[in-house]
Design goal:
single chain, about 425 residues, alpha/beta, two-stranded antiparallel ribbon, 12 helices, 11 strands, elongated, disordered N terminus
Length: about 425
């Protein structure tokens, strides 16, 4: 049974546009429910039909209907709506109308990835940079593109070796996403050259691949600080990575926990799973913690275990849920255990003496100032010695001139005396 509604016309504008919108909503509804027969869409079709008619008459409407049965679904509607509020009403009611149909959402990545991903992923750490070669740990996003952080000759060899391993493993990336860090740019160029990947498939990633920033410890000596950060994460980060924040910095370098970096990595994977499907994607990270952290997320591992999976310079791994868990199940290496123990002691020292670790730039600046000061002192001393030497030479020259003048005077006197004697003898 079907009750027809009452249409109460009122003057309004935009009837034609409203009619078009209603037709689009009607079509969308029927496509979503998978039923092209509009007469089977229940009272909603009736409502749409009469609203469309009202739109042609340039009317606002009041629609009332009683309950009716369509198959097993009972519709009960009582609507008072205008053209402006109708679309909002449909949007509001769409949850109840279509709630039984679950949409297969693509692109929004939820960790862990037990059911796999749309793409195949290989993670790679860039080769050793010039700063790393000088034992400098730089994480400030503003300085990552500086050429002082470019790939070193050692790093170039590491990258070419990694490319050979990829070839031997039969891994041919179809897309390469790389950080804008100078070492990653150089690494991506070598990867493209070695694996014959076109420039259109080498895609820069502007910030999602940035390393975790370490605040007040930025630009410190890496060997002295990295172990302390590892110990900080193991003991204080917790499974979610929300603890263990490095000290703040006054130069704008962020002070981040592991969970802060998780936000960027989650966005990264969601973007990749949205843009690509069925691709072999190579991600190039500027540090070893970034790819290890994303591996933990994919495998569902506690984030305070991240450094067990840390990447070495130039290292590559093909990553999925099973491979990461298989690696995590292996026995912890003595190197890792020794690093954590040493890091705990260094972290304790850092907290007792915050100035124990100095920014390498500050140390270099102070060293340059000291060298400049020493140079100026040496130059000043040299100038003073030169001035004293010049004064001594001037005095010697004056004495020599006086001596010559005296000798010349004596010679003239002697010559005059001789002339006088000769004159007297002639007389």
């Amino acid at each position: 049974m079907r009750n027809t509604g009452r249409l109460i016309p009122q003057n309004s504008n935009g009837g034609i546009i409203f009619s078009i919108l209603l037709s689009l909503v009607q079509l969308s509804f029927c496509l979503l429910v998978g039923n092209p027969n509009l007469h089977r869409c229940g009272p909603l079709h009736s409502l749409l039909f009469e609203l469309r008619a009202a739109a042609h008459d340039d009317c606002d409407i009041t629609y009332q209907t009683s309950s009716e049965t369509s198959g097993d679904i009972i519709y009960q509607t009582s609507l008072e709506t205008s053209r402006r509020s109708f679309l909002g009403a449909v949007a509001t009611g769409s949850t109840s109308l279509f709630g039984s149909r679950t949409a297969a959402a693509r692109g929004l990545v939820r960790f862990p990835c037990k059911d796999g991903l749309l793409n195949t992923y290989t993670f790679m750490r860039a080769g050793t940079s010039l700063l790393e070669l000088d034992d400098v740990w730089s994480t400030n996003p503003l300085f990552l593109t500086n050429r002082e952080a470019a790939l070193s000759e050692v790093g170039e060899k590491e990258v070419r070796r990694a490319c050979n391993l990829l070839k031997a493993s039969g891994i041919t990336p179809t897309v390469v996403r790389y950080s804008l860090a100078a070492s990653c740019i150089d690494t991506a160029n070598i990867v493209g050259e070695e694996l014959k990947i076109g420039r259109n498939r080498l895609v820069p990633e502007f910030n999602y691949l940035d390393p975790r920033a370490i605040g007040g410890w930025d630009f410190s000596q890496k060997n002295l600080t990295e172990a302390a950060v590892w110990a900080l994460d193991v003991d204080e980060a917790g499974p979610s990575g929300k603890g263990g924040r490095p000290p703040p910095n006054e130069d704008g370098t962020p002070s981040e926990t592991l969970s802060d970096q998780v936000v960027r990595l989650t966005n990264l994977m969601s973007v990749l799973e949205t843009l690509y499907s069925g691709d072999d994607i190579l991600l190039i990270f500027p540090d070893g913690t970034g790819p290890a952290l994303l591996s933990c997320l994919i495998a569902g591992l506690p984030l305070n275990r991240v450094h067990e999976l840390n990447f070495q310079s130039g290292e590559t791994r093909q990553i999925d849920y099973n491979s990461v868990n298989a690696m995590a199940s292996q026995k912890i290496t003595p190197y890792y255990q020794d690093t954590i123990e040493r890091g705990r002691q260094e972290l304790l020292n850092l907290r007792k003496n915050p100035d124990a670790i100095r920014n390498v730039k500050d140390l270099q600046f102070e060293q340059e100032l000291e060298e400049q000061r020493s140079l100026e002192e040496a130059q000043s001393k040299e100038r003073q010695e030169q001035a004293e030497q010049n004064e001594l030479d001037r005095r010697r020259k004056l004495e020599e001139e006086r001596r010559l003048k005296s000798e010349q005077q004596k010679e003239r006197v002697k010559r005059r005396q001789q002339l006088d004697m000769e004159r007297q003898n002639k007389q």
